[in-house]
Amino acid sequence: MSQYRQLLVLLTDIDPHSPALRRALALAHASGAAVHILGLFEPRAEHVLREARLNEAEAQRQFERYREQLEGLAARHRASGTCLTLDTVNAEDLRDQAADYMRELKPDMVIKDIEATPALARFFGTPVDCALMRACEGMMHFVPPAAASLPKRILVAVDTASGDDPCAQTLFNRGLIRAAQALALQCDAQLHLLSAYDLVGVYAADMVVAQTWLEEMRDALRVPFDALADAQGVPDDCRHFKEGGAVQVIRDQVAALDIDIVVMGVVQPKGLAKLLGDTTERIVSDPPCSVLAVHPGVMDTWEPTPCN
User: Fold this and answer.
1) 258-291 confidence digits (pLDDT tens)
2) Could you read off the pLDDT of 79-119 as tens digits, one per residue?
3) Does residue 36 sit in helix, strand or coil?
4) Do 191 and 184 contact (CB within 8 A), yes or no?
5) Residues with Cβ within 8 Å of residue 237, at least 6 apart in sequence
6) What is the pLDDT of residue 292?
7) Reduced to 3 states, what is the DSSP secondary structure of residue 40?
8) Spatial CA neighbour of 160 closest among 256, 225, 248
C-alpha cells in the first residue's frame, strides 16, 4: 500500500548524511514515491562588507558550486533507482521562497533536517523551522541527527479536552491519527496514542473532596480519549492518558516508549504563545525525536493513495 506520491526535501547544506534526505529516500523505497530536492542557497555573510560587484561575483560563484555539489549528491542516489529530481534557489528570503515553493508544488510531505533553537532565542524571532511549519499547508516532517532511516515507533499526540469547537477538534484528532496510521503502515511501525491532561488548577480546602473531584474530572476527561481510540482501532496497551503539561508529558513518553517520531497538529499561536510557541513549536524547537507536524487544512485534501 503506497501512501505517498511525492516527497519534498528542503536542504540548506550539502550533507551526504542528511537525516532528512536519508528519511525521504527510505520512505520513497518503501512507498515508490518520487523525491524532489529543493536546495536553498544563502550566500555567506562575510562577503557583505566587500565592494558590491565583488560580492555579487563571489555569491554567484558560491551558488554555482552549491548547485554542482547538489547535482553530484542527487546523481549518487539516482544510481540506486530512486526517482529523484532537484531544483536550487538562490534564496534572498529563505522562509518566503521555501513557503511559496511548498504551496506551488503541493507535495504529500515536506521533509527537513531539524534545527534546534534555544528557548531564549524564540523571544527575539520565529525560528526557521517554526516559520516553515506554519507556512506548510500539508505535512512537515522534521528529522534530527542520528534518526533511524524509518521510524518503528510512532506517537500521536492529541488534545481531547473540550474546546470552542468540539466537532472540529474531534475531526482534527482523527486526521492526526489517520496521518500517523498511513506512516505506520508504510514503515511497518507501531502506533501509540497520547493525551495529556492538567488538573493543577483544581483546588479545595478539604483534601478528601479535592481528591474526589480530581478522580471525577480525570474520568470525565478520559471518556472522549477512549472514544477516539476505540473509533480509530488503537489497542488498550498503546493508549497513554497522562497527567501533566503537554510538552513535558510528550518528552517523558518519547523516552519511556522509545519513540522515533511524534505526530502533532499545527495551530496558529495566540497571545503569549506567539513568543513561547505552542506545544508543537516548542517540541520542534527542542526535539526529543523526529516530528511530523500536520496542518488542519490537510484533512480536507489528503487521502492515502492505494498502489496499483
Assistant:
1) 999 999 998 755 544 443 448 999 999 899 999 9
2) 777 889 999 998 888 889 999 999 999 999 999 999 877 76
3) strand
4) yes
5) none
6) 97
7) strand
8) 225
In whole angstroms, what is the distance from residue 109 CA to residue 107 CA? Answer: 5
Looking at the DSSP assignment, which residues form a beta bridge with residue 196?
242
296 in Cβ contact with 265 (< 8 Å):
yes
Q: Which of 270, 263, 254 is nearest to 294 (CA)?
A: 263
Residue with cell 473540550: 162
- Could you give phi then psi for residue 307, rounded to 5 degrees? -90, 140
Neighbours of 94 (CB within 10 A): 17
* Residue 142, helix vs strand vs coil: strand
DSSP string, 145-158: TT--SS-SEEEEEE
Q: Record the cell numbers describing residue 242, joined without a space.
A: 497522562
C-alpha cell, 148? 533511524
pLDDT of 178 reads: 93
What gap in Å lies between CA 261 and CA 60, rounded to an integer? 38
Looking at the predicted structure, is the pLDDT value of residue 188 above 60?
A: yes
Q: Side by side, which strands form the sheet with 109-113? A: 84-90, 34-41, 6-11, 109-113, 139-143, 290-294, 261-265, 153-158, 190-197, 239-243
Consecutive H or E run containing 208:
helix 207-231
Q: 288, 261 in Cβ contact below 8 A?
A: no
Identify the band that residue 296 occupies on the pLDDT scale cut at 50, 70 and 90: confident
Q: What is the mean pLDDT of the chain?
A: 84
